Structure formats: C-alpha cells, structure tokens
Amino acid sequence: MSIAIKSLTLGAFATNAYLVADTATKNALLIDPVDSPDLILAAAAEEGWSIKMMVATHAHLDHVLAAAALKEQWQIPFVAHKEAAPLLQEVPLQGLYFGLGKLPAPPESDKRLEDEETIILDSIELKCLYTPGHAPGHISLLMEKEGILFSGDTLFAGSIGRTDLPGGDHALLMRSILDRLMPLDDAVTVLPGHMGETTIGHERRTNPFLLAHR
What we know:
Strand content: 25-35%
Oligomer: single chain
Radius of gyration: 16 Å
Number of helices: 7
Shape: globular
Helix content: 25-40%
Distance between the termini: 41 Å
Low-confidence stretches: none
Structural class: alpha/beta
Order of helices and strands: EEEHEHEHHEEEEEEEHEEHH
C-alpha cells in the first residue's frame, strides 16, 4: 500500500492542483480543482487513477474553476470548509474583479468540512486544519503519517498568502500560520497553492514574515 502525488500547475494564476492517489486501489483525491478539467482528467488517466473526490482549500476562483465541470459531467463530489460557502457563490464576481468576465459559479459543497475533520479515501487520510486569513473558510490539509501538508494559499516558500482581497485579514493569517502550522515537525513537506514545495523547518528558519514575529 502506498500513496502517490501528482502536481499540475494550471490557469491564468499558475495555481497548483494535486492528485493524491492510493496506488493499490487507483482511487484518487483532487486537491483544488483549479482549472482545465480535461487536463486534470488526462493526468489522472495517464496514471490509471480514478478521481473520487475533490477538495478545495479555499474558494478563490483560481482554486475552483474546474469544480463545476468535474461534478456536472463526471459526478465527482466536491467538498470545502463550511465557511467557504459565501465566497463560492461570489466566484462570478471574482471573475469580473480580475477582468476575466463573468465566470460560472462552482457547485455547492456536497459536504461542509469542520476543523480537525479527517477526509478518508482508502489509505489516504487528510486532516483539515482551519487556517483562515487569506480567505474565509481556508483550510490546510495534513497527511500526518506521510508528513505532507497541502497549505493552499496560507504558506508559501519564502512568503505567505495575500490578504488584500475581500475577506483577507493579515493578523488572522499570521495566527493561523503560527498556531496551526508552525507546531508541525520541521521535516513536514509543504505543498502550496502556488510556486514550489518547501518544508516547515525551512520556513521557520528563513521566512521573513515568520522571522518578523519572533
């Protein structure tokens, strides 16, 4: 039994989507249905995986644009934190804000996640860590056994999520990072919503936003 992860960087905002698969059953989770549903499905098919669920770290448009097609055409369930619902409904307005035209709204969540809830698919276990600040209802997803954190737009390599969009709160974001992510082990690999991977230890030692809070 093993778990494999495949990352895709898609869309106008170069956003990372992650396919997380149980290699024994070939069933997979999609973390952030960011854009280009056909490319996501092709990437899964190339590995022989079947996507059984998609999870949004948060409801900014670049993390959910493929959700409607994946649910409507392939009946893949969509889940997000319970507080993300209002922002999901505002995706069409987000499109106008960024000059992308009026975009279709993503589907409502089939399940509204709670803090500390664990998502299970075969051998895959993702623990939801409530990490608001970049966006209302933002979650990071921790694979405790494997030491992997999907941080969404909370923590990046050498940076943190922006807080100048509606619903953003810099002080709240820093509390989320310091209280929920920094207690994790230094060796935990961080797979963020944008740019490349890092580790908790590297960010603890070098991230200028975190060093400013020492």
